[in-house]
Each structure stands twice: as structure tokens, then as C-alpha cells.
Amino acid sequence: MCYKRFFTILLITITLSLLIYTNYRWKSSNDQNARFLEIKETIRRYSNPAACKQPNLPLNSPEIMEFLHDVPPIDCNSWIDWVQCKGSECSIKEEIETQKGKLKCAFTNIIRTDDFQITDADTVNTDSYYKLEESDVVNVSCTASDSTTWKSILTGIRLNKEIWDRSGWQYVPRDGLRLNVLMFGFDSISRNTFIRKLPKSYLYLTKHLGGLVLKGYNIVGDGTPQALTPILTGKTELELPDVRKRFIHTQNVDVYPFIWNDFQENGYVTAFLEDLPSTGIYQYRLKGFLKQPTDHYMRPYYMAIGKELYKWPRLCVGETPRHKVMLNYIEQFFSVYKSKPKFLFGFHGELSHDNYNLIGAADDDVLQFLKNLNNSGVLNDTVLILMADHGHRFGKIRNTIQGKQEERLPFFSFRFPEWFAHKHEEIYKNFQSNLDTLTTPFDIYATLKDVLEFRSPIDGDLKNRAISLFSKIPPQRSCAQANIEPHWCACMDWENVNLTLDIVTRLADTMVTTINNYTADHREICATLRVSKIEWVTKMKPSEQLVKFNKNLDADGFVADLSAHTKVLSHTYQIKLQTVPGDSIFEASITHHLKDDRLDLKIADISRVNKYGAQARCIENTYPNLRKYCYCLTD
Ligand SMILES: *[C@@H]1O[C@H](CO)[C@@H](O)[C@H](O)[C@H]1NC(C)=O
Ligand SMILES: *[C@@H]1O[C@H](CO)[C@@H](O)[C@H](O)[C@H]1NC(C)=O
Ligand SMILES: *[C@@H]1O[C@H](CO)[C@@H](O)[C@H](O)[C@H]1NC(C)=O
Ligand SMILES: *[C@@H]1O[C@H](CO)[C@@H](O)[C@H](O)[C@H]1NC(C)=O
Ligand SMILES: *[C@@H]1O[C@H](CO)[C@@H](O)[C@H](O)[C@H]1NC(C)=O
């Protein structure tokens, strides 16, 4: 009787396993296609077909300010490293030898098996230096004559003849832009967050280096892989082979057509750097790489260091702040391969993924990093792409409208060498004219393709989902044309307002009162203006789907839950009107704060649309700031 029960249980187990197995197999081959078609249909039906109007997102919005605070610097000074690696040379520090006499150090190469396993290779003992050849990562253990010890895991750039021989500018396509690519990003940093938390780096990048910031760069999906895969492959996850980890019969990420493969096949040395191996972009939910994806790859280092981190102060590896390990590696990579074409993509998550403020502690280091890149000449033949995947996604910030809008508008910037603007005048002008236009990760892919091999036309075609930033993108581009699902689209919906509504009178009154207040001190010469005609009023509001977006329903981020009731705190109106005397025409954006029913308008937000000409002659030289608003009573 005991047997009978055993067999029944066995039979049930086998049936269940088979059911689950077939179900998973079915799911993994079919749900991707079905979701792909659904998303296409959603975009067709619900995306706003109107030209994108970007939301107005003040840096000091009270909705966001409550989440901001300063953080203390990252202090690793209590620790001293005995050995350091520069390029491929790892050497014992002189000051340690002076202090402690000759050291005995054991260097063990750490070798990558695959994305989830590393092994130790042979150990070499030395009392001077060690050259990295087999691996970029070494486990180092040193003993001094006073029998004190020091251990750490170090990383550098190994010398490899095969990489060296395969790469060179002579192999780079003639019609490429012949630039190195240095793309480096932080996780979860919106454009506004970058300006708020990394102000020194932002100023240096934009003012001193002339970096160009994309103000209309909008995400096309939720999460890091959804943000980066279109940049790196030109496609979304649903358009690529299934590589999800939790399904069987799926492939490794090696099948993805990564753009670094194209660069590598055309003479470039490639590198992919990412910290946080346990939540890796291509390893957390996806199956990871079997073959190492790029010539240099930091994952084995971060896997090896993981178990050792407890030894050091918070956010440190020995004497070095952890984010600087990656920044140093980038500098080393560009120095070792100075004469070679290079493509590097680095992505840092530890400081910013779960914390809104911690990234502020890296501002000085990022600034220094940018200065070093410039001063060493790296930026003279490199396009620097400083970027992020998306804005902050977690917690309370996501429950505010501005937080949601900022989440959809990550920081994304390009900086070209100074000579580039002269040598490639037309495409550089196009690039500049695209800064305020709606742009997406698909466009970045097309842009990178052009860097390798220039193919794009001067005028972008709105029928194409991806338009290179070197083409002129028509400013009337909509989220639908750019293939952005409605709940990811940060562009505002807008509608014409019936001019008989009460709000219209209030808006017009606010506008002329603001102008009249501004000229009030000069009433003896500037006339009091009255509204003679309201031409139009439009109301802008965040798209309904953005307001309703709550979270993803599935683990892959393919299905949206649209059940949120995010509070809309304000509406924005645009108004155009005419005043007398003088028939002046003004336009303005006015914010209506719903909580206290208050209209908010600053004089700087009012623009004069028609010429003021001789009307302002009386104050022309004395009060030039009044010219737009003053109708002179006397000549
Ligand atoms: C590094 O070497 C130490 C012994 O010196 C060992 O305990 C540790 O596990 C090694 N770490 C790795 C990641 O191999
Ligand atoms: C960039 O570096 C060059 C020298 O390589 C220097 O002349 C220039 O002043 C630097 N620019 C900035 C903004 O630091
Ligand atoms: C930058 O590169 C250009 C063109 O290759 C060269 O003429 C110029 O001297 C370089 N400038 C610096 C500061 O290295
Ligand atoms: C505006 O509202 C008035 C009164 O409700 C209505 O008569 C008029 O047709 C509306 N105008 C437009 C353009 O919808
Ligand atoms: C104009 O000035 C008056 C008096 O200083 C003030 O009460 C009013 O709020 C101002 N109105 C606007 C729209 O600035």
C-alpha cells in the first residue's frame, strides 16, 4: 500500500512537471510575438499623433525638492594599498617598500569561465612587479618582512597581441567619422537629477567643453535593459531572440547584434564595463554571455571583488572609492590603446540605482575625470557620450507627475572634439538643431552606426523609427512616430480651450497685470495696457496613460498596469493675445496650480511676438529690459 501511494505521487509529479515544461516552452516562443504585436497596436491607437511638446520641469520644483539632501563625501583614506596596477603593469608602491622593506607578493590571475563563474589560474611570486597578460584581474597577496600582510583584487588592462594586431585606424571604414567612442553612464539619472546632483561636472561639460545635452531624449521602455538594448542593438527585446533566464530553450545574449561587434570587426578595440554583477543588465533577468562580449570586460573583476568588499569602508575598494575604479579603468584603457581606435561602454549603478542623492558624492571625481580626459588629449579624437538609462524609478518620486516625467527623460549628452564642428559643419548643425526635438535610444544606435560608417541623409524621415542625430529630425515628430508607447511618452497632450470659459479671462488678466506691474515705476512714460483680443488659448497636460501608469504587471516589463491615481497638481496654459494701445502681440506659458487655484507667470515667460520698433523709443537706452513691454506715451 505504501508503494501505491508512492507511485501516485510520482505520477502526479511527472504530469505536473510535463505541464509546466510545455507551458513554459509555449510561453517562451509565443508570448514575445504576441506582446510585440500588442505594443505596435497600442502605439498606433493611443499614442499622441501631435508634435511633441516637452513638459516644463523646473529644477527646484517643490514636488521633487523634498527628496533632495546633501550626502557626506566617500572617505577611503583610512586604508593604504600596497600594490597598484597602471595599464598592464602592477607594481609594489615605493613608499610601502621604503617603510616595510622588500615585500613578497603572490599574483594569481583570475580567469572568466562564463558570466557566472570565474576560476584561479597559476600563481606567480615576485618582489617587484607583475605584467598582466592572461587576464585583466589579479588576486594579490603580499607579506612584509615584519610578517604583516595585505590582500586585494586588482584590475588593469592586459596586453594581448591578438587584440593589438587586429585593431588599427587602417581597418576603419574610410567613410566613418573616425572617432573613438567613449560612452559612460550612471543608472537612474534624469536630466534634471544630473544638473541637481552633479552641478560641477554639468557646468564643465556644457560650458567649458561645449557638450550638447539632448533635452527631448525619451525612454522607450521600463528598466535598464529596455533602455540600453535599443541603443546597443537598434532593436527592442521583443524583436530579438528570446534570451530570458527563467525559460528553457532560450539562447544566450551572444545572439544579440551588439554594435560593439561592428566596431570590433572594423578595427576598434572594444570594452564593456558594468559594476553590480548580481543585477547585471544581461545577467539578472537574461541569460548572460557565453563568450566574452568585448576585448576588455570588467565583469570578472566585479565578480571577484564582491566577496572581499566587507573588508573596506563603505563604497571603497582599499584606498579607492569604488566608482573611481571604473573611471580609472576608462582612463587606463584610453591611455594603453592611445594609437588605436576604441569603443568603450561603461555603466555604473552602485551609487545611483537605489539612492537619489548618493551620486552627489561623485561630482568632484566625475569633474576630475572629464578634466583628465580633456587634458590628456583623449577628447580631441573621441566622441564622449555621457548618459543615463532612465530617471529615478522607485518609491515616492514615481508617485508625482514631475517625478514620472523626469523618469522618462534621462540625461543624455554628446561632446565632439573642437575641430569636428568645422570639419563636419552641416551634420554638426543638424545635431545642434535636434537638441530640443523628441529623440530616442533607437536614434542613438543610428548615430553610433554613422560614427563607424556614415550612411544617413541630411534630412531625417519621420517614417523611420530611428533617425540619426546627424540628420535633421523634423521638429513635429510625435511619440507615435518615434515608436514610444503612450505611458512612456513624456510629451504633453494639448487641446484648444474655448475662449468663453472663465479661465481664459483670468489668464488674460494675469498676463496684462504682470506686464503693467513691470512697467508701473515708469507710468509717466509707459502706457497702461489693456487686452484688445485673445487669439488662442491651449491647455497642456501630461498624457492620460502617463498619469495612470503604476508599474509593470510582468517580470519582463512588457505589460503596463495603468491603475495609478497620480495627483495632477498643475495645468499649463499657453495664450496669445493683443493689447492696446499699440496693438502689441504677446505669448506666454502660465501654470495653474490646482491646490490653491493660483496662476503663476513670470515676466521672463512672456514673449513679444510682433516688432516693438519705435514704440519703445522713450526707454530704449535707459531701460532696455522694458523694451518689449513699454508703449511710450511720448516720443
Ligand atoms: C584571493 O586569494 C585569497 C587568498 O590569498 C583567497 O582567500 C580568495 O578566495 C581569493 N579570491 C578570489 C576571488 O579568488
Ligand atoms: C582642454 O585641454 C587643452 C589641452 O589639451 C587645454 O588647452 C584646454 O584649456 C582644456 N580645456 C578645458 C575646458 O579644460
Ligand atoms: C587635435 O587634433 C587635431 C586634428 O587631428 C590637431 O590638428 C590638433 O593639434 C589636436 N589638438 C590638440 C590640443 O591635441
Ligand atoms: C464655446 O462655448 C460656447 C458656450 O458653451 C459654445 O456656444 C461655442 O460653440 C463653443 N465654441 C467652440 C469653438 O466650441
Ligand atoms: C501687481 O502688483 C500688485 C501691487 O503690487 C500686486 O498686488 C499684484 O499681485 C501684482 N499682480 C501680478 C499679476 O503680478
Quick overview:
InterPro entries: Alkaline_phosphatase_core_sf (IPR017850), DUF229 (IPR004245). The protein is α+β, with helices and mostly antiparallel strands and 635 residues long.
User: What is the count of structural domains?
Assistant: 3
- The helix content, as a percent range, equals 25-40%
CA-atom Rg in angstroms: 29 Å
What is the fourth-level CATH superfamily of the largest domain? Alkaline Phosphatase, subunit A
InterPro entries: Alkaline_phosphatase_core_sf, DUF229
Keywords: Membrane, Transmembrane, Transmembrane helix
Q: How would you describe the overall organization of this protein?
A:
- This protein has 635 residues and is an alpha+beta fold.
- The protein has 3 domains: 83-155; 171-462, Alkaline Phosphatase, subunit A, CATH 3.40.720; 492-626, Nuclear Transport Factor 2, Chain: A.
- Helix content is 30%, strand content 21%.
- The chain is built from 17 helices and 24 strands.
- The strands form 6 sheets. The protein has a 7-stranded mixed sheet with strand order 9-16-15-8-14-10-11, sandwiched between helices. Strands 17, 18, 21, 22, 23 and 24 form a 6-stranded antiparallel sheet that branches. Strands 4-3-6-7 form a 4-stranded antiparallel sheet, covered by helices on one side.
- α6 runs parallel beside α11 (363-375), α7 (224-233) runs parallel beside α15 (441-452) and α10 packs parallel to α11.
- It is globular.
- The protein starts with a helix and ends in a 27-residue tail after the last strand.
- The mean pLDDT is 92.
- InterPro entries: Alkaline_phosphatase_core_sf, DUF229.
- Keywords: Membrane, Transmembrane, Transmembrane helix.
- The chain crosses the membrane at residues 7-26.
